[in-house]
Write a structure and sequence with these properties.
By secondary structure, the protein is mainly α. It contains three helices and no strands.
Length: about 150
Amino acid sequence: MGDINTKDFLIGTLIGGIVGATTALFLAPKSGKELRNDLGEQASIAKAKTTEITSSAYDKGNEWASIAKEKSSNIAKTVSEQSNQVADKVKEVAGGIKTEADIAKENVSALTDDLTSEVKDSSSKVSQTVKSEVDDLEKKVEQEKKNLK
């Protein structure tokens, strides 16, 4: 049960609500005209809610993407600062030994570049994943809108 995806749960809940509302309308003891009016009202309500959910999901996706980008940028900055400090300390310790200091500086610089690139790649992937999920959710909502019409 812990493997249920939140997106799938929300879609299932939305579809279940629509099916339940439709079933209740069809089983209600009303005339055809009243039933059609009720169906029209429920369709309008469902459309408004879907639009609201779509907008909310898109906003949340953008918010998560910007948070991920900001955090990864902060991590990259911290790693860069710390590696520069390590390089400076290595220079101090090495003092007159040029070859060892140069090697250490190159290693620290390479490590900094690798870590910075990994953090940026990770941030980009998180951002793309969130945007992709939001786009998928929008497509499903649009499909549900078409199905309701």
